[in-house]
């Protein structure tokens, strides 16, 4: 069956490949494991691990191809850049409706991801994410599960485990280089580009909850561009203000846009 979704599962090393992902159902999405650290000396280990993973899936659910990308990166912003390059070079933007990127500290399952995608198609969502369990480490309360809801609509989804309409991802990609950490991309770039291009439906899926098991970093690391994550976030806020005033000044004064930029 042809999938309309490509999911990039982030991993730091072959030995711990997808250790937090439960293979409990036939994945209704295509899988690419993105290794974000240099593993030149571990490529044989990587190939062996991917074979084991593919066999594990195939044993119960049929043949599934698991591909991999390997780049040494400083932060998730650079991972997004490499994903955009991969999609462009391989002409995959037209093939896929959705592009997802899940961090390696999110405990999730194939069945849960399948259900998220089913709900997203039903509600015609432009970007979405699973809700987080109440015991998760979290940055924003709006990402936590609401027990009485199927989904709840939000202004934007967090960069931890987002799934985007592929065209929205493509339209936003020119800004990825502005944030090595990725801070500011989720709360400023994606929501502004969304509203400039009539993508208006963004949600957290309450029916499916995953756990985030690693403490949120403080953002005090100083990257090779000389900026901390917090400084990158402010840089992107100002950049989007300039961009809006240049491209669509009438939209800049809209109340919702102002609430996003003042976050």
Describe the structure.
The chain has 263 residues and is α/β, with parallel strands linked by helices. It is 36% helix and 20% strand. It has 8 helices and 10 strands. The protein has helices spanning 43-61, 76-89, 110-122, 166-172, 185-196, 229-247, 249-252, 255-261; strands spanning 5-11, 21-22, 30-35, 66-70, 98-102, 106-109, 127-132, 151-153, 163-165, 202-212. The longest helix has 19 residues, at 43-61. It is globular. The termini are far apart. 38% of the residues are buried.
Helix/strand/pairing category: alpha/beta
**Gyration radius, to the nearest Å?**
18 Å
Mean pLDDT: 90
Looking at the structure, the CATH topology is Spore Coat Polysaccharide Biosynthesis Protein SpsA, Chain A
Low-confidence stretches: none
Using the coordinates above, name the CATH class: Alpha Beta
Proportion of strand residues: 15-25%
Gross morphology: globular
User: What is the count of distinct domains?
Assistant: 1
CATH superfamily: Spore Coat Polysaccharide Biosynthesis Protein SpsA, Chain A
Number of strands: 10
Helix content: 25-40%
- Architecture, CATH level 2? Alpha-Beta Complex
SSE pattern, N- to C-terminal: EEEHEHEEHEEEHHEHHH
Short characterization:
This protein has eight helices and ten strands. With 263 residues, it is an alpha/beta fold.
């Amino acid at each position: 069956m042809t999938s309309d979704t490509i999911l990039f599962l982030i991993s730091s090393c072959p030995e711990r490949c997808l250790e937090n992902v439960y293979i409990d159902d036939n994945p209704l999405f295509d899988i690419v494991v993105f290794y974000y650290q240099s593993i030149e000396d571990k490529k044989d280990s990587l190939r062996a691990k991917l074979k084991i993973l593919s066999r594990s899936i195939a044993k119960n659910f049929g043949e599934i191809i698991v591909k991999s990308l390997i780049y040494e990166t400083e932060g998730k912003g650079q991972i997004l850049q490499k994903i955009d390059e991969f999609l462009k070079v391989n002409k995959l933007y037209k093939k896929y409706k959705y592009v997802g990127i899940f961090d390696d500290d999110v405990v999730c399952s194939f069945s849960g991801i399948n259900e998220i995608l089913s709900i997203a198609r039903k509600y015609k969502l432009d970007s979405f994410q699973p809700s987080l369990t109440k015991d998760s480490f979290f940055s924003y309360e709006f990402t936590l599960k609401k027990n009485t809801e199927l989904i709840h609509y939000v202004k934007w989804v967090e960069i931890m485990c987002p799934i985007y309409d592929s065209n929205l991802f493509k339209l936003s990609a020119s800004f990825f280089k502005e944030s090595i950490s990725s801070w500011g991309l989720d709360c400023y770039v994606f929501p502004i580009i969304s509203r400039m291009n009539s993508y208006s439906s963004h949600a957290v899926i309450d029916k499916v909850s995953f756990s985030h098991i690693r403490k949120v970093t403080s953002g005090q690391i100083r990257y090779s561009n000389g900026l901390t994550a917090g400084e990158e976030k402010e840089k992107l806020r100002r950049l989007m203000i300039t961009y809006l005033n240049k491209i669509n000044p009438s939209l800049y004064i809209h109340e919702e846009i102002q609430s996003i930029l003042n976050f």
